[in-house]
Design a protein that fits this description.
Methylamine Dehydrogenase, Chain H; mainly beta; 14 strands; WD40_G-protein_beta-like; repeat
């Protein structure tokens, strides 16, 4: 099983160098290619508060960041260049998750909502209210048909597309 997972990873990665991203409480992020250089490839700025979560898209083309500044930002996953800001949450954004096809991004917030963002259109696709309190965790099902969320209200919700 480990060998099969490694083979899938190597196939998806191709000849591109491995990339890492770090987010910080100083509101910045750094894009790294550790096999090429010990210096960061890009310094990424734009958030106004702590960067809480960073996540590469499954296809590696995009990078998303969630922040206590109530925003989700989209970056080019190869160059680190800023692409778009997604605004709509009215409180800290705790976690983000990509759909398997990298077309949709899910965010969960202190404002008790989940939001689904359309990457191609660069706008909100769907607002998912329903939790009684902060949403701490969000994720997609592998088939992209469902999302799951959990939060401070101790409720695990399964959302169908």
């Amino acid at each position: 099983m480990k060998e099969a997972a490694l083979a899938r990873y190597e196939k998806m990665r191709g000849n591109a160098p491995e990339r890492l991203v770090s987010g910080s409480d100083d509101f910045t992020m750094f894009l790294w290619e550790p096999t090429i250089s010990k210096q960061p490839k890009a310094r990424m700025t734009g958030h106004q508060k702590v960067v809480n979560h960073v996540y590469f898209s499954p296809d590696g083309q995009w990078l998303a960041s969630a922040s206590f500044d109530k925003s989700v930002k989209l970056w080019n996953g190869i160059t680190g260049k800023f692409v778009a800001a997604f605004r709509g949450h009215v409180a800290d954004v705790y976690q983000i998750s990509w759909s398997a096809d990298s077309r949709l991004l899910l965010s969960g917030s202190k404002d008790s909502t989940l939001k689904v963002w359309d990457i191609r259109a660069r706008k909100l696709k769907q607002d998912l209210p329903g939790h009684a309190d902060e949403v701490y965790a969000v994720d997609w099902s592998p088939d992209g048909e469902k999302v799951v969320s959990g939060g401070k209200d101790r409720v695990l919700k399964l959302w169908m597309n």
